[in-house]
Known about the structure:
Elements: H1 22-27, H2 39-45, H3 50-65, H4 70-91, H5 112-128, H6 134-170, H7 172-180, H8 201-206, H9 211-225
Helix pairs in contact: 4-5, 4-9, 5-6, 5-9, 6-7
Amino acid sequence: MTDTHPLRSASTSPPTSRPRAKETSSIYPDPNSIQNARLRDRLRARRISPRLLVAYAAAIGLLVLAAPWGPTYALGCAVVFVGLALRIWSFGHLRKNQDLITTGPYAHSRNPAYLGSALVMTGLFTAAGNPYSPVGLGIWFAGLIGLIVFFAYYLPRKYRREYGKLRSIFGQAVDRHAAHVPHFFPRLTPWLSGDRQRFSWACVAANHEPIWPAAGVLALLIIWFG
């Protein structure tokens, strides 16, 4: 699953021929923002890297080789839904490059969208495997390897690239947020920063998030019925 840092500055692309809905434009007023592009244009602008090809191959392999078992499939579904809900909550607050978001899930974790993605990945591998066959165990082992790569390589790389950008935009407010809210695993009580940013479905749409819950549910259906 493709991810962006919850506070990452938006990149730009050439203006699209047709603007998105007014709600999206009001969240990201720059007409050249990639956030205002249609999904098709965003996919065309995405660079296909070896890392991305490996991720696609792993996703296809997971769906093709899935060997679900009822109890662990149900557990995996629950974890996926929690992860998707956390992503929706996160992107419902996010205004990339507009504000430093410290409310909602960002009062518990500085990277709640990444946490949601990790839960979705964990849930999908849990749902697709089983403890009674070599294939099922192999899927769980592959999922474990995927999580190790996620935490040991993907997240540190993202942090190095993105926190410098955040500090250049928001200055000391980033360090103040970091002093009270952990990187990844959430604190139980929210940090009260004094900001009043609230959840907005317009933000969810502007951040192109609705496609991912649909993809997650479709993947679970393929795992069980495929």
